[in-house]
Specification:
There is one protein chain. Helices cover 20% and strands 41% of the residues. By secondary structure, it is an alpha+beta fold. The chain has 2 domains: 174 residues, Porin, CATH 2.40.160; 104 residues, OmpA-like domain (60s Ribosomal Protein L30, Chain: A). The strands form 2 sheets. Strands 1-2-3-4-5-6-7-8 form an 8-stranded antiparallel β-barrel. A 4-stranded mixed β-sheet has the order 9-12-10-11. A hairpin with a 5-residue loop joins strand 3 and strand 4. The radius of gyration is 49 Å and the shape is rod-shaped.
Length: 319
């Protein structure tokens, strides 16, 4: 039972230590300066244990284990040194009820801001009701303490009481494992960590395509109907403008000069206008936004009898 109790104590200690070290990584500067001096009180519960072999000669030897309760009080001069007193009650330990009053000194060593190991040395008077005699003995203890707030702590500990006197003139050692809570007076309120969601508005640069012109004239060589390099360069600008401005439309007008016959000129001007329209559609412009017409040489752009390079062209008007 002793081994089991000590194993439980070790496991609890490891769990508290691991959590405390993780939490301590986020301790702010304000808590580092908290003065840990002052009066404190505490309470706990645990198990008292004696070697059952030592009880074998007693009348109705009873059990070597008993539930224990603990009340404590003390004063810490600083975070490392203080005085303490305690009262422990153990029911039916070796057919006896034990009352233990202790006075001693207590020391703390802090691994982190909140986690410490403590040690105790003191003197204990044991008042027994039953098969165990009253006695005066020395006591020692160790444990781990974790500070939940500036005022409240939790701890696990082990106390050792030497030479508990049995009624048959024998001695035995008393062991106690326990868990408890303490409250220290006069400590400042623990700062509350407040998480506030802040909406950050990020300015994103938006590229705006502005229309530099609304009229494009794309010239052709005699007999040419396909879009040439100069035409593609200008039509790319037309396509970008229309895509960036959904409210705009484009009128496409095919022309020729007056060199050929009326039938040939009509066919060529239509082919030129259709080629331009298809190029814009292939580059993302909806066909419903395009109006396609061809006028051959019947509506010239110039007054030089319709035989200039500019007459062999497709005119694109954005509106």
């Amino acid at each position: 039972m002793k081994s089991l109790s000590l194993s439980v104590l070790a496991a609890l200690s490891l769990g508290v230590a691991t959590q405390a070290m993780a939490d301590d990584a986020v301790v702010n500067d304000a808590t580092q300066s908290v003065d840990k001096a002052g009066f404190w009180i505490g309470a706990g519960m645990g198990m008292g244990i004696v070697d059952s072999n030592d009880l074998s000669n007693l009348n109705g030897a009873g059990t070597g284990e008993a539930f224990s309760s603990k009340l404590e009080a003390g004063y810490d001069f600083n975070k490392n040194v203080g005085l303490y007193t305690s009262y422990d009650y153990m029911h039916d330990l070796g057919n006896a009820d034990l009352h233990l009053g202790t006075l001693g000194v207590k020391g703390n060593y802090y691994f982190t801001q909140d986690l410490s190991v403590f040690g105790k040395l003191g003197a204990t008077y044991i008042f027994a009701e039953g098969e165990i005699d009253d006695s005066f003995t020395g006591t020692a203890g160790v444990g781990l303490e974790y500070q939940l707030t500036n005022a409240v702590s939790t701890k696990i500990g082990y106390d050792y009481y030497q030479n508990l006197e049995l009624s048959q003139g024998q001695d035995t050692d008393l062991h106690q494992v326990y868990w408890g809570m303490t409250y220290k007076f006069g400590q400042p309120a623990t700062p509350m960590i407040v998480t506030q969601e802040v909406e950050v508005v990020k300015e994103v640069p938006v590229e705006v395509t502005t229309m530099t012109r609304s009229n494009f004239v794309l010239p052709y060589q005699t007999g040419q109907v396909d879009v040439n390099d100069y035409g593609r360069y200008n039509l790319n600008e037309v396509a970008q403008t229309l895509q960036a401005n959904p409210e705009l439309t484009a009128e496409i007008i095919g022309r020729t000069d007056s060199t050929g016959t009326a039938a040939i000129n009509a066919k060529v001007s239509e082919a030129r206008a259709n080629a331009v329209s298809q190029y814009l559609i292939d580059n993302g412009v909806d066909a419903s936004r395009l109006t396609v017409t061809s006028v051959a040489d019947q509506n010239p752009l110039t007054d030089d009898n319709g035989k200039s390079l500019i007459e062999r062209s497709v005119e694109v008007v954005i509106k």
